[in-house]
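Example record for the data management plan.
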Amino acid sequence: MSLTRRQVTVAAIAAVPVAFSATGTAQAREQRTLYIAGDSTAAQKYADAAPETGWGMALPFFLHKDRRVANHAVNGRSSKSFVDEGRLDVILGAIRPGDFLLIQFAHNDEKTSDPARYTEPWTTYQDYLRLYIDGARARGARPVLATSVERRKFDASGNAVPTHGDYPAAMRALATEESVALLDIQALSLALWQKLGVEETKRYFNWTATEQDNTHFNPPGAIAVARLVAGELLRHRVLAPRDVCRLDAEIPESWITWPSPATV
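Corresponding structural encoding:
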């Protein structure tokens, strides 16, 4: 389905770039924005969802103020449904030459029972990802692919287990084919969960007194994943050393805040 005009306006307002500085049109145009298209693992969370935290909420802590973040990631979306709902169009209507479009999908593309979201890794998933890549490039922006962050899952021997099937491999292959920078967050997060172990990883996911969520993060988890993302942006020379900060510093959990729920 397509977004109504009001929904498009609300979506654009809700994703106003973090660290926006209204110091004049000329200066604003010199600043480059990193747009995030993704699912609930990256999305902005609101007060009614706390302490659940998307890694996109923590990413600005690792970027200098002239590298802004516009987080358009939304709960429950796949590469397909994000397009079908007009959300990619919202980004492409705002993105400018020199900006970046960071694309992370797979969690909901995997839902075979839901035709509104399901994509097949080696065909429709890649086809939809090309829409993001081509759309960004057509507007002079740089697309960046990110394999989906891993869920918290361990086998009986305490080994962290991958959960995304062929989707990471399909994205890696597409990145090579299209000469797009790839942030392999799936591999990096899997290695991190393995290092932390079964019990310690609970401190990074949205485990509360009433919920045991092995997909979504709390503040420490979101900060840890955002650190991986920022490090990969630097390693792949998407961003320069002058663009990033605090990669080795402790980020206080108190820096994470949850605004009042968005009005849709």
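Summary line stored alongside the record: The first helix runs from residue 5 to 14.
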